[in-house]
Each structure stands twice: as structure tokens, then as C-alpha cells.
Amino acid sequence: MKMSKNKEKKFRVSYYKTFKEPATKTIIYVVLIGIGYAYLYPLLYMITSSFMSVEDLVNPTVVWIPTKFTLDNFVRAWKVLEMPKALWNSVYTSAIPALAQSLITALIAYGLSRFEFPLKRFWIVLMLATFLIPTQVTLVTKYVLFSTLRLTDTIFATFLPAIFGQGIRSAIFILLYLNFFNMLPKAIDEAAEIDGANTFQIFYKIILPLSLPAIVTTFIFSLVWYWNETLLSGLLLGNKIKTLPLELRDFVVRYAVMFPTADGSAANRINEGIRMAATMITILPLLITYLFLQRQFVESLERTGITGE
């Protein structure tokens, strides 16, 4: 009787390994492929369309691979976007605030993690409210504030909020750092205090180097959000400092001005290939940045626990 039960148990285990595990893996792979396709399809479509000529775009038999690769779409998009100037504006209005936000939010989170003060929970809830309230609700008041301070149409409209911990989605970065600092034992701070280090020395000599994974995560997300921001940037920076996303927003109007079609020719009319080329130029710097930082980014996500592990 015992032998039969053991055989039945072994049979069930072998059945599970033979059928259940491959089926589970197949389902997981199908789901992952489907999700990957949903995310990659727009990017692949953008790349292929940007290299297509007008003849290929109107030819229903040409789907993915152009019959003849052309760079005319990129040449025209480059001119309309005013690429060198717009790229420089995008770089310094995104990279500098992202770096400042990464450091300032770390300092704020360190204070919340290591020190006790009156109404601490209230300030944390108030900080979360700045993230939960939609940007459109405070848009008018922000413009009135910066206009009163005469900071509109200047780079300080972007720099100052990041320096004072009120940059784009700063609250979520403070929470990320707070979770990371809470995992660090306070014995590290106590040992440094015994060696004579003050609070600020402990922060930038010990805590910041240990927080490199969180800093990388914060910087990349902050860079992407600052780069793609058009609502606040268009309102506060105006037409004096136009970034690539702002140029892309006005791309159709500017193209019509630079390449008029008064002669009735279809050669200068904007087409889907030119639109895709302009979009590709706009997101290309972010793709290059991610390619260089992808290893550090993946490792930082694992160490900061942002994946939920």
C-alpha cells in the first residue's frame, strides 16, 4: 500500500514537471511577448516610416521595409526643429534640474528618515498631496507666482523648483529615497558620529555613496519627465527657450511656413514620414542615454526595491 502511494506521488510530480511547468512558462512567454509587442510596435513603426519616401507611404504593398531608404525626411525635420538650438535647450533645461532634484530629494528624505520633529507625519502627508494633486490645478497659481517674481521666460522657472525640492514629481523621489534610507542601519550613522563626523559629513561622505542605485533611478526618471514636459515649459519658458518637445508640438505650423505649397506641388507637403522623423529625432537623445545607463538602471531598480521585491 505504501509503495502504491509513493508511486502515485512520484507520478503526480513527474506529471507536474512534464505538463504544468512548460504550460506555465508558455503562458508567461506569451504574455511577455504580447506586452513587448504593444510597447515596441509604435517605436518600430516610427523607425520604418521615417525612412520611407512618399511613394512607399502611399503604396499599400510596402508595410515594414521601404523599397528605397531615404534621409530627406530627417533633413527637413532637422531644419524645422532647429535641432542644434533646441537640443541644447533641452539638455540644460532637463539635465541640470534632474541632477539637482536627485540630490535635493535625497537630502530631504534623509532628514525625514533620520530625525524626529513635530508634525513629521503631517509634513509627509502634505508632501504626498503635492504628488496627488494634478498639475493643471496649480497651473494658474504657478504662473502668477513666477510672473510676480519676474522669472517667466527664464531658465530659473525650471531650476528653482528643482533646487527647493518642488520639481516635477519630487514627492515620488522623496518616497523612493525614504524607503531606501530606512533599509540602511542607523548604526552606520552612529559609528560615523563616534569618529567625529557631523550630520552633513555623514550624508555626503557615507549615505550618498551608498545611495548610488537610488540616485541613478531618480536621475533617469527625472531626466525623462523634464525632457518630455511641455505644459509647464510652454507656459513658464515661453517662446524664448524652446525645447525639442516644444518644437515638435509646433512642428506642423513651422513646417507649413518653411516649406510652403503655394505652387500646388505635393513635394513640399508634410507627410507621415516627416512627422515620424521629427518624433524620432526628439526621442533619440533619451534612447542613447538609456543605452549607456541601462545596466546601472536595471541594477538600481533591483536594489531600491521599486519592482516590489
Can you tell me about this structure?
The chain has helices at 2-50, 54-58, 72-81, 83-114, 120-132, 139-148, 156-163, 170-183, 187-194, 199-210, 212-228, 231-236, 244-249, 251-258, 272-304. The chain has 2 domains: 2-50; 72-304, MetI-like fold, CATH 1.10.3720. The chain has 309 residues and is mainly α. Helix content is 75%, strand content 0%. Residues 305-309 have low confidence and may be disordered. It is globular, with a radius of gyration of 26 Å. Helix 4 packs parallel to helix 7. It comes from Fervidobacterium pennivorans (strain DSM 9078 / Ven5). Its main location: membrane. InterPro entries: MetI-like, MetI-like_sf. Residues 87-293 form the ABC transmembrane type-1 domain. Belongs to the binding-protein-dependent transport system permease family.
Structure class: mainly alpha
Spell out the CATH superfamily of the largest domain.
Answer: MetI-like
Give the number of helices: 15
CATH architecture of the largest domain: Orthogonal Bundle
| Number of DSSP-assigned strands | 0
Shape: globular
Poorly predicted runs are 305-309
| Main β sheet profile | none
Task: Quickly count the domains.
Answer: 2
Mean pLDDT: 81
Please name the defining characteristics of this protein.
single chain; 309 residues; mainly alpha; MetI-like fold; 2 domains; 15 helices; 75% helix; 0% strand; disordered C terminus; cell membrane
Secondary structure elements and their pairing?
Layout (H helix, E strand, L loop, with lengths): L1 H49 L3 H5 L13 H10 L1 H32 L5 H13 L6 H10 L7 H8 L6 H14 L3 H8 L4 H12 L1 H17 L2 H6 L7 H6 L1 H8 L13 H33 L5
Helix pairs in contact: 1-15, 3-15, 4-7, 4-8, 4-11, 11-15
